[in-house]
Amino acid sequence: MQWDLWQGDGEQIYSCSIVTTDAAPSFAWLHNRMPVMLDNAGMQQWLDHDLDTEKLTALFEPVLVAPQVITPVDQAINNSRNKIAPQPVGDSKTIR
């Protein structure tokens, strides 16, 4: 993840963006979109300021570049007022 630092009005804010794409077929049962996942070559392309943006389109293909472990957690995770760590409520599953 790439962090950025915004400074203004006497404060500093660290921020980042999560770029999403359609869900990979093995992920679609969970949600209709997922984060774009880049391998090392894709990361180098993304950070290359000289690369034509049209060539970046392929990086948005919905693929899992590595196995993902999915663990169901308590629905309290959906409320930003909850400041405690989410509790697992089921067994983990690995998707590829």
Number of E strands:
6
Number of helices: 1
N-to-C series of helices and strands = EEEEHEE
Sheet-strand content, in percent, reads: 15-25%
Helices and strands, with pairings:
Blueprint: E1 4-8, E2 11-15, E3 20-22, E4 33-35, H1 40-47, E5 68-70, E6 93-95
Antiparallel strand pairs: 1-2, 3-4, 5-6
Key features of this structure:
96 residues, mainly beta, two-stranded antiparallel ribbon, 6 strands
What is this entry, summarized?
With about 100 residues, the chain is mainly β. The protein has one helix spanning about 40-45; strands at about 5-10, 10-15, 20, 35, 70, 95. The chain folds into 2 domains: about 1-60, no CATH class; about 65-95, no CATH class.
Characterization of this structure:
This protein has a two-stranded antiparallel sheet with strand order 1-2. A two-stranded antiparallel ribbon has the order 3-4. A two-stranded antiparallel ribbon has the order 5-6. The protein has one helix and six strands. With 96 residues, it is mostly beta strands. The chain has two domains: 1-62, no CATH class; 66-96, no CATH class. The longest helix is centred in the middle third of the chain and has 8 residues, at 40-47. A hairpin with a 2-residue loop joins strand 1 (4-8) and strand 2. The chain is flat.
